[in-house]
Amino acid sequence: MSGRVLVGVKRVIDYAVKIRVKPDNTGVVTDGVKHSMNPFCEIAVEEAVKLKEKKLIKEVVAVSCGPQQSQETIRTALAMGADRGIHVDVSGKDYENLGPLQVSKILAALAKQEDAQLILLGKQAIDDDCNQTGQMTAALLDWPQGTFASEVSLEGDKINLVREIDGGLEHIKINTPAVITADLRLNTPRYATLPNIMDSLMNNETELHKPNHRTSLCVGLIPLFETVAPEDMQGGTDRSGAMLRHTVLQSGKPKRIILSCLCI
Amino acid sequence: HTHILTRWRSTFSRSAPDVASHQPAEVASSFPPLQTYTEEEGMMREAVKKYAQERIAPLVSKMDENSHMDEEVIKSLFEQGLMGIEIDPEYGGTGSSFFSSILVIEELAKVDPSVAVLCDIQNTLINTLFVKLGTPAQKEKYLNRLSTDMIGSFCLSEAESGSDAFALKTRAEKHKDYYVINGSKMWISNAEHAGVFLVMANVDLSAGYRGITCFIVDRDTEGLEIGKKENKLGLRASSTCPLNFDNIKVPEKNILGEVGHGYKYAIGMLNEGRIGIAAQMLGLAQGCFDHTVPYTRQRVQFGKRIFDFQGMQHQIAHVATQIEAARLLTYNAARLKEAGRTFIKEACMAKYFSAEVATLTTSKCIEWMGGVGFTKDYPIEKYYRDCKIGTIYEGTTNIQLSTMAKFIDKEYNV
Question: Which of B20, B54, B82 lies closest to A194 in CB terms?
Answer without folding.
Answer: B82
